[in-house]
Design a protein that fits this description.
340 residues; alpha+beta; Coagulation Factor XIII, Chain A, domain 1; five-stranded mixed beta sheet; four-stranded antiparallel beta sheet; 4 helices; 9 strands; globular; binds 2-acetamido-2-deoxy-beta-D-glucopyranose; binds copper (II) ion; monooxygenase
Length: 340
């Protein structure tokens, strides 16, 4: 019943709905030891390992040059030193720092080696290899996506395990969400790329082959089956074809094969912190279908408390038509409706 009432509430709130809430960016990145804050789009940048973008709006079109590292991404000042096999976690948020607003579509991670220091490397012609991709949660009867995990609950991260045998060097990690809620039409897919600068230590030898490398733009086409997806809302859920190359062979061949980031592996670094909030707490227009009670781990709480103060600047909202919001809503409703 609640689900029936929510849309009415949403319609009333449309006039005050901040448009920045509909899209988002990577706000915080963790490696095994440290927390790094990514700069809010258009905020005065502070030293970070995450390349700052200038708007939370999605990159549209597979040929868009901003597919490389996100909207007008700038070089970042810092580099995180990590080890092969480390887990990295990423907190995606809406432009108003709300919970990530989308729940349909894949999470993918690519890497490219920076010749020299990533702090000065322009990656527009870089050749990338894929290290992980997460689509629908296996055997989920509703066809839910891993992306749904960061939508239904605040402060849940996306996670990747770096290849356990990767050669040492300076790398960019290109983490991308594709939101497919409008992907039933050509050009509807929303791309959210984000680049993080790391230096991998150790003595690994793993490298991709030449055939596994792609450029951005270049890797995708608007008509790829994973980008134009007319059956994305069908049930039972049809198999999903990831765009781009397969995960590089060395990633899965390395000792203790990793790279298909599973939640279970995270163990002690549980990342849900939603004190008393529950799903969608404080959000106006999210169509929430479940209310998992968050059990915040004390270690994560500590991590979040230790974060540097968030800059006060907010992204300047771009014009975002009400009809676009309505379409989002309508599609969201279809998605929710088809689950019940
Ligand atoms: C994207 O680029 C490809 C390759 O150059 C070209 O065939 C295609 O027409 C372009 N698509 C659009 C929408 O411009
Ligand atoms: C990288 O090079 C492209 C093409 O010259 C340019 O448009 C872009 O602004 C550069 N990016 C950075 C971060 O300097
Ligand atoms: C890369 O650049 C950063 C920032 O300038 C600096 O701290 C770091 O020492 C540099 N690393 C190397 C290997 O030059
Ligand atoms: C990331 O890992 C945590 C556990 O550490 C898990 O709660 C969360 O669901 C994972 N994220 C995704 C998108 O699966
Ligand atoms: C999520 O984390 C941010 C800090 O990054 C914090 O300000 C916010 O209160 C947290 N939200 C919830 C629901 O825990
Ligand atoms: Cu959006």
């Amino acid at each position: 019943m609640q689900l029936v009432l929510l849309p009415l509430l949403c319609l009333q709130l449309l006039s005050v709905l901040p448009s920045v809430a509909a899209h988002g960016f990577v706000h915080i990145v963790w490696d095994n030891t440290k927390t790094y804050v990514g700069n809010i789009p258009q905020a005065e940048p502070t030293p970070s390992i995450v390349r700052q973008i200038d708007t939370v709006d999605p990159v549209k079109g597979a040929n868009n040059t901003f597919l490389n590292c996100g909207q007008d991404a700038q070089l970042a000042e810092s580099v995180a030193t990590v080890n092969p096999g480390d887990e990295m976690r990423f907190l995606w948020q809406g432009g108003d720092l709300s919970t990530w607003p989308h729940n349909i579509g894949p999470l993918m991670w690519y890497m490219t080696e920076c010749p020299g220091n990533c702090t000065s490397y322009n990656s527009s012609t870089a050749e990338w290899f894929k290290i992980s991709q997460l689509g629908r949660i296996p055997n989920d009867p509703n066809g839910d996506w891993y992306q749904n995990n960061i939508y239904i609950q605040a402060n849940v991260t996306t996670n990747v395990t770096l290849p356990s045998n990767i050669a040492p060097g300076n790398y960019l990690v290109r983490h991308e969400i594709i939101a497919l809620h409008l992907a039933t039409s050509l050009g509807g897919a929303e791309f959210y790329p984000s680049c993080t600068q790391i230096r991998v230590a150790g003595s690994g030898t793993g490298k991709p082959t030449q055939e596994e490398l792609v450029t951005f733009p270049g890797a995708y086409s608007d008509t790829d089956p994973g980008i134009l997806v007319p059956d994305v809302f069908d049930l039972p859920p049809p198999p999903y074809t990831f765009p781009g190359p397969p995960v590089a062979a060395f990633v899965t061949q390395g000792a203790g094969a990793t790279g298909t980031g599973t939640a279970a592996r995270a163990g002690p670094t549980t990342t849900a912190t939603s004190p008393g909030g529950g799903a969608g707490a404080g959000k106006t227009c999210k169509l929430v279908r479940a209310s998992p009670s968050a059990s915040a781990s004390s270690s994560t709480k500590r991590e979040l408390e230790e974060l540097a103060p968030v800059p006060v600047a907010r992204p300047r909202p771009r014009a975002h038509s009400v009809s676009g919001i309505m379409r989002d809503l309508a599609v969201g409703l279809r998605a929710i409706g088809s689950r019940h």
